[in-house]
Amino acid sequence: MNGVTKLAYAGWPNCVRLTAGDVELIATTDVGPRILRLGFIGGPNVFKEYPEELGLTGGDTWRIYGGHRLWHAPEARPRTYAPDNGPVAMEWDGATLRLRQPVETATGIEKQIEISADPGAPGFRVLHRLVNRGLWDVALAPWALSVMAPGGRLIAPQEPFRPHSEWLLPARPLVVWHYTDMSDPRWIWGRRYIQLRQDPARAAPQKIGFLNRRGWAAYALKGLLFVKRYEALENAVYPDFGCNTETFTNAEMLEVETLGPLTRLAAAGGAVEHAERWSLHRVALDDFREDALDRALVPLGLAS
Fold first, then answer.
1. What average pLDDT does range 75-92 have in this prediction?
2. What is the C-alpha separation between 102 and 60, in angstroms, rounded?
3. Residues 106-127 as b or e (16 or more Cβ within 10 Å = b)
């Protein structure tokens, strides 16, 4: 990583820029922890930004802001929606940027994000940590949500196809919400990939979750491909009927979400971590049939 630069960005005066090769990341210390931007230097942001919320701080109302955030699952109001509208502590040791939120008053949870260069890819390693600073044990899961800019599509791998004659047991859970409409044309249910298009003309929200043992999910946007890599831990219990991957879309954005295992955190310091590896690639995808996806993704180590 080529060091950090302090700068103002998107209305927040206290931000930090990191680079890994020709990929840059910008986080703010004015709210959060939030990562606001990921893109090639001089190129567009693959994350969504909400113009009406840029630069805002303070208040008791949770704001989406855009970018990348850390939550704790399973989702519930008001616990999950604890506001993160105040400043966060920052540390830089020459290799890793650490962002630490003050303890949430209502939950006793402290959120931390650590960012370092990923030596194996043009991108970053993003480590999410939840620490229980409360007086009682709590059960939760780390939940990492990337809010993607509109006009792209999620690409996620199916489990390897096996004929009925060779394999009788199920492959994995696929979880739907009450508002999930599997006939919505934004979904593409393929043999090797699941795709979800972000469509600014369609306001109805859509969401699914699943257990992803293939260890990656991607977002294709106007010649760019953002990739998350992460683990599916054997014998772990994941939230939402067993999901370590979820995706949500509406007319404004699409979220690529990953989750760590449900963990009981001991009072006064119990912690759980969840790591993602981010990479960004220039990939001119204009054919989303599965053979074409294979030709684009397999060279990146993303075979289904």
1. 96
2. 15
3. ebbbbbbbbbbbbeebbbbbbb
Q: Using an 8 Å Cβ cutoff, are 175 and 242 in contact?
A: yes
Calpha distance 31→28 (Å, rounded): 6
pTM assigned to the model: 0.96
What is the token pair recorded at 243? 């999901």
The answer to whether the CB of 232 falls within 8 A of the CB of 90 is: no
> Which tokens go with 150?
């509109």
Task: Kindly list the structural domains of the chain, giving each domain's residue range(s) and its CATH number in brackets, ordered by start.
Answer: 4-300 (2.70.98.10)
User: What span, in angstroms and rounded, lies between the C-alpha atoms of 139 and 264?
Assistant: 4
Q: Which tokens is 97 given?
A: 């940027």
Nearest to 255 by CA among 266, 263, 247, 245: 247
Note the pLDDT tens digit of each residue in 105-147: 999 999 999 999 887 777 999 999 999 999 999 999 999 999 9
* Mean pLDDT, range 1-8, rounded to an integer: 82
- With DSSP H G I counted as helix, E B as strand and the rest as coil, what are the percentages for the chain, rounded to 5? 5, 45, 50
d(CA 61, CA 135): 25
